[in-house]
Amino acid sequence: PTxxxxxxxxxxxxxxxxEAAPPECEPPExxxxxxPLRTSSVSAPPTAPLEPVPGATPxxxxxxxxxERLELTGSTRVIARNCEWRGCRDLEVSLVLDKEQAxxxxxxxxxxxxxxxxxxxxxxxxxxxxxxxxxxxxTPAQREARLRREAHAGAVxxxxxxxxxxxxxxxxxxxxxxxxxxxxxxxxxxxxH
Length: 193
Known about the structure:
By secondary structure, the chain is of the alpha+beta class. The protein has five helices and six strands, in the order ββααββαβααβ. It has helices spanning about 65-70, 75-80, 105-120, 140-160, 165-170; strands at about 25, 40, 85-90, 90-100, 125-135, 185-190. Strand 3 and strand 4 (about 90-100) form a beta hairpin.
């Protein structure tokens, strides 16, 4: 038997796969629409640390969720909640602190946030770099305030659109004091990065 001639019946050559880019993590909130606000008087049960995958850089959960899971208190919690997620490369998280909160910030806050992140993510190699500056996106504290405003505006709109309430207000020459409207159920302040 004879071998097939070159090009006749031979397998096509395959180009080598391009090298993978270094691992980067990006906050998922840049990919998803904001969630509606819901509150509850019941606190969420503690969650287990993320399991690291050997040889891979894990992607942390969205910053606004993660910051609420970190065991932070006092001014360190205030600092963390007023930081914007800027990015993550390898095992280094980059945060920008709202410059209006910069006067509260010191190196000890960064150390405490790094330690809490390491505990939560289950990997001592994580580091956090925090720099005061101009924000390009909302912080967890700003997100919570926005969601509360949106929930309040929605509640006021529903009350204004309620025909029964409208007839009562008309009948008794009443007014709806919007500032007195409180959203107490079905609203959460935790959700995505």
